[in-house]
Amino acid sequence: MNTDYKLKDNVPLRPMEKNDWFASWFDTNYYHLLYKNRNDDEARLLIEHLVGCLNLAPNSKALDLACGRGRHSITLNELGFDVLGVDLSSNSIEEAKQFENETLHFDVCDMRNSFTKDRFDIVFNLFTSFGYFDNKSDNEKVIVAVHEMLKDDGILVIDFMNSRRIINSLVESETKVVDPIEFKITRNYDGHHIFKHINFDDAGIKHSYTERVQTLMLEDFEALLTKNGFNILSTFGDFDLNGFQEETSDRLILVAKKK
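Below the sequence we write its predicted structure tokens.
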């Protein structure tokens, strides 16, 4: 781990399991190619709105949980935060490390672990980086770990898809051509998860990956957070922080405080 953060004694980082779908997919260059057009301006807008809404002190310590290649972490740092970004993908963290400085660091870590002795003023979990696990009990492990790593009265922000709207407007199939790979994408809903099946050829080799995300609703998060030591302060439905409407909102963004 980074020497700027104190690793907890005798707490090993949990390795990725071979049967975890994200273990292989997130670590490939194809994943980053498919999603390369994610809007950095949109990411900055969300962070700026959240920071303004939460009225956090300068130099607050922030944890970006499941940070990917660090686009939100970088913005937080530019706004004056002391930031640690962590992700399970070693390739993503390797890319992010080029942006490190005295108050911005990145490391590989599983979000189910409370991995550091340091405590944070705020933890961000953004862009639907939750609900990937086979067992819902792992969701609780994440929240328990976050609770332990937050300071008293610390804040947790979760930005998740609006599951209800996704289910009601599911795009069952589409094709995306990206530099110059043709990604053939199909989706289905099994009553508990959204599945996204991604198939493509590259240099005559066929590839196939499947993303799987739990369709967690507002009431699921309310129960999970309340049970594990949080009070929900606000729920928003988009990056402009308008109120959440289950049938129509683009996102489900929750702000919760550690009890």
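Residues 21-164+218-258 form a domain with the Rossmann fold fold (CATH 3.40.50.150).
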